[in-house]
Fold:
Amino acid sequence: MAWKKQLALPDGKVVALRDLSRKDSPKELADFINSFLKEKAYLRINRKISVAEEKAWIRSRLKGMKKGNIIHLHLECKGKLVGVVDAERGEYKHHGNVFLGITILPPFRSKGLGEFALRELIARAKSEMKPKNIYLTVYTDNKKAIRLYRKLGFVRHHVLKNWINHYGRYLDEEFYILKR
Ligand SMILES: CC(C)(COP(=O)(O)OP(=O)(O)OC[C@H]1O[C@@H](n2cnc3c(N)ncnc32)[C@H](O)[C@@H]1OP(=O)(O)O)[C@@H](O)C(=O)NCCC(=O)NCCS
Structure:
């Protein structure tokens, strides 16, 4: 049976965490990721992603999942995509380093979903990828994300000063490594 975990939110809604599937809609995923542009979220993208790009991206993610190099999970509420968490191995000599990412739609934040999804992702990454290091990066200004990462046992390793051009303002990027 396919892997699936669920979390009941304080308002009674139930959110499911499950692997990306080839049946997932590139349009829904494009709309999801593009919605973060409007709020100028602290994410890497700085332009709209097309449905065609998203289609190619899903294909490459599925390929990476099959090879054991990627874990890509969707958070779903009533069949709608509300968040994504993923873990990806580095290439070649970085094979032992696994990089994590997380994005959750605004109405589903501050309900414990981020913590739930990252704990499940980390447990799977540890057991399936056997990494030497689990790490992530975050902009210094993203205080909420940093609080969550610290709670989960991530420790700041280094900072790249003035590294990210965030809508015309250069921000620092911090690297966090999981210590336990
Ligand atoms: C950063 C992000 C992933 C956090 O996800 P989240 O689902 O809001 O995280 P959680 O709900 O687990 O924890 C966040 C807060 O909710 C609180 N919370 C947890 N469960 C709660 C509950 N049942 N009721 C009320 N608050 C709750 C936590 O205590 C925490 O509070 P704090 O920020 O004051 O410490 C989310 O804000 C996001 O997707 N942001 C935009 C994209 C982004 O920045 N991604 C990270 C890039 S590095």
User: Anything to note?
Assistant: The chain has a mean pLDDT of 97. The chain has one domain: 4-22+69-178. The radius of gyration is 16 Å. DSSP finds four helices and eight strands in the chain.
